[in-house]
Amino acid sequence: MKKIALVPLAILLAAPVFAQDGDIIDPADVTKVYTQAGVLLSGNSDIQLQGQISGGLENGQQFALLAEAYFKDEDRNANDFGSDYTNSRFQYFHVFEPGFHAVPKLGFSVDYINTRDDAAGMNNDLISIGGVAAINPAYTAGLLVFPRLGVITGDIELTQQGIDDSVSGFSAGLITAKYLGDSGSYLHFTPEYQSVSGDTIEMDTVSFKAGINAPLNSARTWWVNTRFDYTKTSLSTNNIALPSDWQSEVWFGIRKYF
């Protein structure tokens, strides 16, 4: 089965946003907010473009607005970079401090996800609402741990099968990070499960994402990002399962924090 691009909510919640004055830039903590822009390239020459702005309220709460788009070469020509639009997302992300020692920060997001992937034979328009919690590292031996849960609703069209269905479901994941020395570099690992269904479509996605991100200067305003994705999407229509395989992809990119 061709790979179907349904953006995991964990990626939406993990996106870094705008640094407050005097703060050390620390993208490993997904509940810190920064303004940033980035570009990533995959081993298949796909392109991801991302931009984000953020700010804060007088009560200390912070927020961010994210826009992101993916492009790929549908003919999979090894000499061509991605130029065909496949999907995008727009997100509002809000972070506040509930005053709990064990859970010092909570965040929630509202996302619109759009896919127009002719190669995969899939169009979708989805809304996702999710929450993420920051666990106090004192309880996790210094490991940064952020459990998250989300709900999903919207429409999915499978163009090759001529099926258009309204679906709903959920996603659950665990965002983790481990600092590598004192430079701010960190290893990240995110497992996630996602399930949506409607009258004719049932789709389950299991993904594992891992990589290393590192600053390129002492001010930590320029970063190199790496990520390895390992994903399997199981899809059935009218109770008939379609063939599916594990898919892997490597990403490399540069990100600028302002």
What would you note in describing this structure?
A hairpin with a 3-residue loop joins strand 9 (186-197) and strand 10. Strands 1-2-3-4-5-6-7-8-9-10-11-13 form a twelve-stranded antiparallel β-barrel. The protein contains one helix and 13 strands; from the N terminus they run H-E-E-E-E-E-E-E-E-E-E-E-E-E. By secondary structure, it is an all-beta fold. Mean pLDDT is 90; it is low at 1-22.
Which characteristics define this entry?
mainly beta, 1 helix
How are the elements arranged and paired?
Blueprint: H1 9-14, E1 36-42, E2 47-56, E3 62-72, E4 84-96, E5 105-117, E6 122-134, E7 144-158, E8 163-179, E9 186-197, E10 201-215, E11 222-237, E12 240-241, E13 247-257
Antiparallel strand pairs: 1-2, 1-13, 2-3, 3-4, 4-5, 5-6, 6-7, 7-8, 8-9, 9-10, 10-11, 11-12, 11-13
State the end-to-end CA separation. 41 Å
SSE topology string: HEEEEEEEEEEEEE
What structural class do you assign from the helix and strand content? Answer: mainly beta
Percent of residues in helices:
under 10%
Oligomer: single chain
% residues in beta strands? over 45%
> Which consecutive residue ranges, at least 5 long each, have pLDDT under 50?
1-22
Spatial strand order of the main sheet: 1-2-3-4-5-6-7-8-9-10-11-13
Number of strands: 13
Q: What's the story with the biggest beta sheet?
A: 12 strands, antiparallel, barrel
The geometry reads as globular
Radius of gyration: 18 Å
Average residue pLDDT: 90
**SS element count, helices:** 1
